[in-house]
Structure formats: structure tokens, C-alpha cells
Design goal:
There is one protein chain. With 72 residues, this protein is mainly alpha-helical. It is 85% helix and 0% strand. The protein has three helices and no strands. It has helices at 5-26, 32-41, 43-71. Helix 1 (5-26) runs antiparallel to helix 3 (43-71) and helix 2 crosses helix 3 (43-71).
């Protein structure tokens, strides 16, 4: 069985993005990086930066990697 690195990284990136999204909804006060971003940038901007960097970006990257894997 020949498994590509794109498939593995794509699935892991999507799983990480979804995990971060669930953590933000369940217990955002336990995420140290989120709290640091809120302290530095304010409430709204800190949440926005964390959402983009730790949820949206990994999911989009994972989808692009899966697309590259299945396109070949």
C-alpha cells in the first residue's frame, strides 16, 4: 500500500484545525496561546487571530493537501 505524505499531512492538519475549534468552544480559558493573544491584541482581535491561525488555516491547508493527493 502506497500512502502519500500529502494524505497523511492533510488529514492531520484538518484534525488539528477541528480540534482547536472544539477547544475554543468548550474551554477557551484553558488555551494559553489564546489568552496571550487576547492580552496583547485585545478581545476581538485576539480571538480573530487565533481563529484564523489555529482553525481556518490548518483546515484550508489540509483540504489543499487532500486535493493534491486525489488529483494525481
Amino acid at each position: 500500500m502506497n500512502i502519500s505524505i500529502n494524505l497523511i499531512l492533510g488529514v492531520l492538519a484538518i484534525a488539528y484545525g477541528l480540534y482547536c475549534f472544539v477547544q475554543r468552544k468548550i474551554a477557551p480559558e484553558k488555551i494559553e496561546k489564546l489568552q496571550t493573544m487576547i492580552e496583547r491584541n485585545g478581545e476581538k482581535m485576539g480571538h480573530s487571530i487565533h481563529l484564523f491561525g489555529y482553525t481556518i488555516l490548518p483546515i484550508v491547508t489540509g483540504l489543499l493537501l487532500l486535493y493534491a493527493y486525489f488529483r494525481r
